Amino acid sequence: MAQTVTEVLTAGSDSVTLINDINTNGNKSIHAGGTTDADGNAVAGTWTQAEINEVVQKNVDHLETILLYKPVDSDDDTPNIVDSSNSKKGTCNTAVTTGKAYIASNS
Hints:
By secondary structure, the chain is mainly alpha-helical.
């Protein structure tokens, strides 16, 4: 059974969360090797900026890929993300922009 537009965009929410968290917390993000100390304070991880940027880029690439989903003909059950007005599409587009800006600012 093919996925729906909503299912595909919901699956992309992990990438949105990762990009936004790294953008906000940098190397203290749990998605960039950051941890918390005994008092619950965020502590920077040991990842290099290049490693963090690579993770962000992979998630930007994933979102860009799913945002291009569109059936090629009437027999194709690929969900039509391109022509969708689903609000999660906007969230994914915003995360792509955020991720690209983060990498540009941290390269």
